[in-house]
Write a structure and sequence with these properties.
mainly alpha, Cytochrome Bc1 Complex, Chain D, domain 2, 2 domains, two-stranded antiparallel sheet, two-stranded antiparallel ribbon, 6 strands, 32% helix, disordered N terminus, signal, Cytochrome_c_Peroxidase/MauG, cytochrome-c peroxidase activity, oxidoreductase, periplasm
Length: 332
């Protein structure tokens, strides 16, 4: 049976019967669940994502700054690196990051695979080297066996490590938010205030940058269009990658999926609350001063973008061997 409703018709099969569900014709589209084609690789990547032995201290893992219990970020203004170094920039969420145009605020990594190798060798983050990280993994029999099972060879290299981490991160999508349900035709999924907030979000022009399934993440935009953005952060934005002065203060537009979980906001973490972030963005990007009621409406809408969080069994990491180099948690 085929049901024709206003919107985009998407063919589905349920219990062997073909039917059609309506997706509202909006600038934002529903998130689709991740499709896992290589579960062994994903499981290996999950272990590496949680393994602090990829850091010099043996204390910092990918999950330290992209905590999957906290919206895929660390909820700090800037992240903490090796020896409690203060990071230069706010940690973006890893959730739905596979949908982004590039990785990092300045887009210096084109893919999740490329991004995964960066923090390991960054002296201000995990403070290791790729060679030393590989030496650690190669000394752990459980990892050697698992890499052989996934890649067909017991030789471990950074390309395989980052490929596995990226495979796991690609599964970290968060579908089934209240807004997704509304997009798919459930009129009861949003209340009047949330709908009013979405209407204002569209009419104000927010959707020019925050659109698509990830509600952002697909372009670089200047921070401070109508008014200059004032900050003590030294981050230059896209110009640090391109070398072009016109790209200064251009940053990747963040996804608004799960945004109520990923505070504080902006590349410098300067906005602690969603209300503050909405007020600043309206004024600096759109030249609009929102009332308290309007800010509340938009925030109510933004909270409908929180979807199903990643749910899985925590990995049991393989034990180190006698040959595994010991961590150096207090090394300068």
């Amino acid at each position: 049976m085929r049901v024709k409703l206003i919107g985009i018709t998407v063919a589905l099969a349920v219990a062997g019967t073909a039917w059609a569900a309506t997706v509202r014709d909006e600038p934002i589209q529903p998130l689709q669940p991740a499709k896992v084609t290589n579960p062994g690789k994903v499981e290996l990547g999950k272990k590496l994502f949680f393994d602090p032995r990829l850091s010099r201290s043996g204390f910092i893992s990918c999950n330290s700054c992209h905590n999957l219990s906290m919206g895929g970020s660390d909820n700090l203004k800037t992240s903490i690196g090796h020896n409690w170094q203060e990071g230069p920039i706010n940690s973006p969420t890893v959730l739905n990051s596979s949908l982004a145009v590039a990785q990092f605020w300045d887009g210096r990594a084109a893919t999740l695979k490329e991004q995964a190798g960066g923090p390991i060798a960054n002296p201000g983050e995990m403070a290791f080297t790729h060679d030393l990280a590989i030496d650690v993994l190669q000394s752990i029999p459980g990892y050697v066996a698992e890499f052989k099972s996934v890649f067909g060879s017991s030789r471990i290299d950074i390309d395989k490590v980052t490929s596995a981490i990226a495979a796991f991160e690609e599964t970290l999508v968060t579908p089934n938010s209240a807004f997704d349900k509304w997009l798919q035709g459930d009129d009861k999924a949003l209340n009047a205030r949330e709908l009013a907030g979405y209407k204002l979000f569209k009419e104000s022009g927010c959707v020019a940058c925050h659109n698509g399934p990830a509600v952002g993440g697909t372009s670089f935009q200047k921070m401070g269009v109508v008014e200059p953005y004032k900050t003590t952060s030294t981050a230059e934005g896209r110009s640090a990658v391109t070398g072009k002065d016109e790209d200064r203060f251009n940053f990747k537009v963040p996804t608004l999926r799960n945004v109520e979980l990923t505070y504080p906001y902006f590349h410098d973490g300067a906005a602690q609350t969603l209300e503050e972030a909405v007020e600043i963005m309206g004024r600096l990007q759109l030249g609009r001063t929102y009332s308290k009621q309007e800010i509340g409406d938009i925030v109510a809408f933004l909270k409908t973008l929180t979807g199903d969080q990643p749910s899985f069994i925590m990995p049991l990491l393989p034990p180190s061997s006698n040959d595994t180099p010991p961590p150096q948690p207090f090394a300068k």
